[in-house]
C-alpha cells in the first residue's frame, strides 16, 4: 500500500525557467540602477544571451554589454541567488497537493543551494502544503540525489518503508535511479516540450506528462498491488 509521495521540485512542481527569468529580472534591475539603462532592455539582453550562448555566459556578457555599471560577476550571482522568486506552481497543482495530502504523507526532496531552494518553496506556498521538505545539500552536496542517504532520510521523515513510498520527479538519473537504489518505485514526469533524448521509461514504473495524471496512476498501482 502506498502511504507516502516524495516529489522533486524543479521542473516537477513548477517551471524552472520561470525562476531563471525571475532571477535575471532582479539582476537587470540591479544593473539598471548603476548604469541608467532601462531594466527591461537589460533583461531582454540577458534572456537573448541565455538562448544563444547558455547560462554560463549570461553574467559576463551583461557586464561586457553595460560596462558603466562597474559591477562584478560575483555581485550579480549574489543578487540572483538572494532575489525573491516570482514563480508559481503548474496549473492545478496546488489543489492536487491538497487532495493528495488527505490520503498520503507528502514530502519534497530537492538539490541545490538550500537558501535558494527554500526561497522557491516559500514563493510557491509549499512550506505548509506538504509534511516534510528536505534540502539535500544541507546534508552535504555529495549526499544530494541520487545518493541513497537523502532518500532514506525522507522515508524516515514520512514514517514510510521503501515499498510504501513513491518518488515523482523529472530526472531519470537523480529521481528514478535514486529511488530504485533504495527500493522505491518512481513516476517519471516528462512534459512534451522537455525531452532529453533518452529512453524515458527506463527505471521508471510509469511515465506521465502532468502530475494531474497522478491520481489515476496511484489507483492503477494500488490495483496492481492487490492483484499480485
Question: Gist?
Answer:
The protein has 228 residues and is α/β, with parallel strands linked by helices. 46% of the residues lie in helices and 12% in strands.
CATH architecture of the largest domain: 3-Layer(aba) Sandwich
Helix residue percentage: 40-55%
What order do the strands of the largest sheet run in, or round the barrel if closed? 3-2-1-4-5-6
Query: Termini, distance in Å?
Result: 12 Å
- What are the low-pLDDT stretches, counting only 5+ consecutive residues below 50? 194-201
Average pLDDT over all residues: 92
Give the class-level CATH name of the largest domain: Alpha Beta
At CATH level 3, the topology of the largest domain is Rossmann fold
Question: How would you classify the helix and strand content by structural class?
Answer: alpha/beta
Structure commentary:
This protein has helices spanning 16-35, 39-53, 58-65, 73-82, 93-101, 114-123, 148-157, 172-181, 214-227; strands at 4-7, 105-110, 132-135, 165-169, 185-189, 206-208. The chain is α/β, with parallel strands linked by helices and 228 residues long. The chain has 2 domains: 4-15 and 89-227, HAD superfamily/HAD-like (Rossmann fold, 3-Layer(aba) Sandwich), CATH 3.40.50; 17-82. A 6-stranded parallel sheet has the order 3-2-1-4-5-6, with helices on both faces. Strand 4 (165-169), helix 8 (172-181) and strand 5 (185-189) form a beta-alpha-beta unit. The protein starts with a strand and ends with a helix.
